[in-house]
Every structure is written in C-alpha cells, then in structure tokens.
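The methods section describes the discrete structure representation at length, but only in general terms. Each protein is reduced to its one-letter sequence and a matching series of backbone shape codes. I believe one specimen quoted in the main text would settle the matter. An entry of this sort, consisting of the sequence and the corresponding backbone structure tokens, reads as follows.
***
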Amino acid sequence: MSPALGEVRLRATHLHVQFGERKALQDISIEVRAGEFVALTGPNGSGKTTLLRAALGLIPVAGGLVEVGGRPTGELSARERARWLAWVPQEEIPRDNLPVRDYVLFGRYAHLPPFTAEGPHDRELAEAALTQVGLIDRADSGVLELSGGERQRVLLARALVQESPTLLLDEPTAHLDIGHELDLLGRVRKLVTERGGAVLAAMHDLNLAARFADRIVVLSRGRLVDDGAPRAVLSETLLREVWGVQAELREDPRTGHPYLLPVLPGELFPPRRRNERGPVHVVGGGGAGAPILRRLQAEGFRLTAGALHLLDTDAQTAEELGIVFVAEVPFAPLGERAREENRKLLERARAIVVAPFAVGPANLANLEALPAFAGHVPIYLVGGPPDADRDFTGGLARETWERLRAAGALPVATLEELVRTLAQPSALAA
C-alpha cells in the first residue's frame, strides 16, 4: 500500500459561508483522505455545491478554514489550487465547437508555463484519459456534437489529465442514464482504488452513494447531519427526517450494500372509492405492464402490482399512478422479502393479470408464484405465451405459462379484449 494512502488531502474546519443574511454553511468540518470516495448528499439547497465551491476557493468564506494538501486555499494561487484540485461541474456548455481532444487538453493548464503550447506528453495524457472514459473514438469530434452524457465524460477526462490528487464532482451523473451513471461512477471508483486518489462528490442518489462511496456526508440546511460509512449513515429515520420520505432499508443481496426503497405515502389499501372494482394484481416488468396499469385504472379498477425492480418502467408507472406495488433493488433476483410481500398482494387480489413481459432469472419468481392461485382467483394471460424473444429462462417461463393455461387461466390477445373481459360480472372473484 502506498504511504500516501490515508493522508488528508482536503480539510474544512468550522466552515461558515453566508450570502447576505442567508447562512449557506454553518460550522462544517470534514476531511477527505487519499484513497477515499466521499459522497456529499442532502436535499436541494442543503449546501452541497456551496461546500464544493468554497473548497475550490471560488466563493469567500465567512469563517473557518479550508486546507488543501495541508495549506490554506487562500495562500494558493489559481495554478497551485489546480494542481491540487480538479473540478467536474454539474453542467458546462462549451462556447465553441472545439475538437474533444483540445477541450480535454485545457486540463493541462496548471502544468504549463504561460503562453506555452502542449507537448507530446500532454497529448499522450489526453489520449489516455479519453480512452479511460470510453471516448477515444470521439477525440476529433466537435465537443458541441456530443450528447449531454458524453460531454460529462469529457469533463471527467479533462479532470484526469489535470493529474490533481483530489477530484471534486458536482452531481456528475445529472445528465446520464442508469447505464452511464454506473459506468462513470465505476470509473471514478477505479481512480480512487488504483491511483489512491481522493474524491468528494455531491450526489442526490443515496443508493448510488452507498454502492460506490466509502463515506457518506449528509448536509441539511447548511449543517452537517451525519458523516460515516454507508451502512452506519443510511437509515429509514435519516430519510424521513432529512428528506421527508418514507423508505425501507434493505440489503442488496449481491453486494451486501445497504439500499433504501421508497414507500408510497398513505395507507397500503385506501378506502375503496365508489364504483371501484378490485383489487386486480398486475404482473409485469420492462414496460409491458404500464399500458395495462394506466388503462385499468382509468376504467375504475383498484390495482396492485409486483414484484417490480426499481428504475423499471412499470415501477415508475405504478409510482406515478399511486398504485401499491412490491419493489426490489435494480438488477437483482427477487429476494424472499419481495416474494412474500408479492404473495400477500396476490392473496388479496380478486383477479390477476399477467402482462406480456420479458422473463429472465431475476423475475421468473413472479410467474412461479401464480400456479398456487390458479382455480381460486381468475388469471388473465395477455398476449400469448412467452416466445424466444421474451423467454430468457431456457423455456421455464413458457412451461409455467402453459401450466397456468392448463389450470384454467384465460388467454386474452389484446388490452381491449382484457378490458371487455374484466367488465363481465363474473370476471372477478367474489
């Protein structure tokens, strides 16, 4: 292990920042050490960006001290600060359509004498950084021709060529889809692990913070609420008191990392509205259940759904419509807790609707739970049996579908046919 690991790279001591009468930061003390990824979290307006800007020396402080490499930032020139700290803002819109390679080379500013052009070594570093962020094939493209997510990776490449021991990021995944979020944070995590870098990143997503960070620092209204390892910091109480959100704390079965699942507000089963029928439980995933949920709710059915992975389109639709559903962490097989909660919803259902969803090992349990209810609760199979395009279980999904059909489940070809069928007096169990 390098002797540099563990040394303090960035320290804020009793830091105060004030804008007019508003106290933006109050008595903040934190440290970021070499080999450490620290996630800075908190609601909007809690002071995350202010703390990063104060660390960079971009805004004046009303009290306290910020030190970089053991020296107060106020004693460092702009070039010296740039040698210690690299900055990736939340968003930066370039004014000119410079080639991506040239834009990345701006990161070499701190290492070049004034009015000196980049040399072969600088260009090699730029090529290496673009390779690291997966954009070497776009090196000659204009920076304005890139997507927002690609530009965010260019900013990371620019920070890498700066060769600063500490990296500050402000919402680095703000414009990225989930795949690129995981990719970018994985690259940052690798930078910390392999190079002994230090990272302080403002992040909204607590679950991503728990997955990639060594520590989570929580701010609220400019004050430090908590600072520690993800498992010690994340709690249902924290989310309720700081964010005003109800959540269940679980453990990712693959990694052991803590994971917060938001809970829909209100009672699990609110009082039944006039002319409302149900509950009808919808089994779906991957967006296949979304049109069914929307249409059946519009037709006056009380609905439940699950089990669905968070970030899944059907989960987002159910949350948007206020439909009770069982949630599981993204990309993980359905755990015992999710299966049990889903079974309870199935027991309460007066009908079960199976959407034409893609079935894989992670969600096969949704189908496997249904034969026990066949013959007791009407089951409607929308869109035909799983074919090769949506059966990724080696035929187990189709086999289970056929068992349901043999036990009396009713195939319906279209959503319109489903609606007409459910409108019949005998369509729901008594």
User: Anything to note?
Assistant: The chain has two domains: 8-244, 277-422. Residues 265-274 have pLDDT under 50 and may be disordered. The domain at 8-244 is CATH 3.40.50.300 (Rossmann fold).
